């Protein structure tokens, strides 16, 4: 079985990987498509992020979908030939957070393509994968696998939106217009936001943002004062999704958020701690919230995608064969050319 395996920074190899054991409660899936995520790029370029570092070869990938090959004796609800989106998250179900309904904070989480634990949890960029029944979310037969591969990043955005509270009639700012920022724009628009403004340092993703739901897109590199008008009268935005993971973006968000606003920190820069202007945070009574992964939102994401209530197709840049994985990762790195790059297996 061929897989995309990271050995060290810029040492990504397409090589043989051992087949997984297959039990009575398992589903074997032929992986058809997998999206390259920001965390995959961190492993590719830097060998990890923060204290999370590769200590052994690891198969990358967690944004995956495919076709069921076989099911265990105890499995019902899916069968060979069914298309499925694979939830990369497998919480233990018995720790205090799982029992308290916070499975995304599981103390014994197994998340595909993660070096947070050793041995690492091998990822989904492989030709075949064995998962539990609960991880295999059945798709309608007419849904494209390439769209279903967006379920995981959309899940992240749906969870972030829940952290923000109701968006109906709200004025929303999204800072950072990568794949997550773009999906947040779609989610906010679907949830009834009154106005959506987005910022980035590059024009190509901003141009796409206006096509998928943003009312205004501001390049804060070429137009550093573009947000200034929104700071008048103590601020404008009811909700800010900070998806850049950059200190200047968070500072700008606090400056233009109105009193009582909610800022959801979606972007994560584990290698730097951005300073927070506490005086404004306090004086404007702003709520600053984190957001981490997802749980039940994965099934919601599949539903939104399969019904096309959220149409992810405009975000797909290119589908690259597994054999050209290095080229795919290099393309995904270039934000001037790529929004979302998928590997095809």
Description:
- With 345 residues, the protein is of the alpha/beta class.
- It has 2 domains: 2-150 and 312-344, Alpha-Beta Complex (Quinone Oxidoreductase, Chain A, domain 1); 156-290, Rossmann fold (3-Layer(aba) Sandwich), CATH 3.40.50.720.
- It is 26% helix and 29% strand.
- It has 10 helices and 20 strands.
- Helix 4 crosses helix 9.
Structure in a nutshell:
By secondary structure, the protein is α/β, with parallel strands linked by helices.
Morphology: globular
CATH homologous superfamily heading of the largest domain = Medium-chain alcohol dehydrogenases, catalytic domain
Rg computed from alpha carbons, rounded to a whole number of angstroms:
20 Å
Runs in which pLDDT lies below 50 for 5 or more consecutive residues are none
Fill in the keyword field for this structure:
345 residues, 7-stranded mixed sheet, Rossmann fold, 2 domains, alpha/beta, single chain, globular, 6-stranded parallel sheet
List the helices and strands and how they pair.
Elements: E1 2-8, E2 11-16, E3 26-35, H1 38-46, E4 48-49, E5 52-53, E6 58-59, E7 63-71, E8 83-86, E9 89-90, H2 96-99, E10 110-111, E11 128-132, E12 136-138, H3 145-148, H4 151-164, E13 171-175, H5 179-190, E14 195-200, H6 203-212, E15 216-219, E16 237-242, H7 247-256, E17 257-265, H8 278-283, E18 287-290, H9 297-306, E19 316-321, H10 325-333, E20 340-344
Helix pairs in contact: 4-5, 4-9
């Amino acid at each position: 079985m061929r897989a995309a395996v990271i050995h060290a920074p810029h040492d990504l190899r397409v090589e043989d990987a051992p087949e997984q054991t297959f039990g009575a409660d398992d589903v074997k899936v032929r992986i058809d498509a997998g999206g390259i995520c920001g965390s995959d790029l961190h492993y590719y370029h830097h060998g990890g992020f923060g204290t999370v570092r590769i200590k052994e070869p690891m198969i990358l990938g967690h944004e995956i979908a495919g076709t069921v090959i076989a099911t265990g004796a105890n499995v019902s609800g899916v069968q060979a030939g069914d298309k499925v989106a694979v939830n990369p998250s497998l919480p233990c179900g018995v720790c205090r957070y799982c029992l308290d309904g916070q499975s995304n904070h599981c103390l014994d989480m197994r998340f595909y393509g993660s070096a947070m634990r050793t041995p690492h949890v091998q990822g989904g960029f492989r030709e075949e994968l064995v998962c539990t029944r609960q991880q295999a979310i059945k798709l309608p037969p007419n849904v494209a696998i390439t769209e279903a591969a967006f379920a995981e990043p959309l899940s992240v955005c749906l969870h972030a939106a829940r952290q923000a509270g109701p968006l109906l009639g709200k004025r929303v700012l999204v800072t950072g217009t990568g794949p997550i920022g773009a999906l947040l724009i779609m989610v906010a628009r679907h949830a009834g936001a009154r106005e959506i403004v987005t910022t980035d340092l590059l024009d190509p993703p901003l141009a796409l943002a206006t096509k998928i739901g943003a009312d205004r897109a501001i390049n804060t590199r070429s137009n550093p004062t573009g947000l200034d008008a929104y700071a008048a009268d103590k601020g404008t935005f009811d909700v800010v999704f900070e998806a850049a993971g950059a200190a200047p973006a968070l500072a700008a968000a606090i400056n233009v958020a109105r009193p009582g606003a909610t800022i959801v920190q979606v972007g994560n820069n584990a290698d730097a701690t951005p300073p927070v202007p506490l005086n404004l945070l306090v004086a404007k009574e702003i709520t600053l919230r984190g957001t981490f992964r997802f749980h039940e939102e994965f099934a919601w994401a599949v539903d939104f995608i399969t019904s096309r209530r959220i149409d992810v197709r405009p975000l797909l840049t290119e589908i690259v064969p597994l054999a050209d994985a290095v080229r795919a990762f290099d393309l995904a790195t270039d934000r001037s050319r790529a929004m979302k790059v998928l590997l095809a297996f």
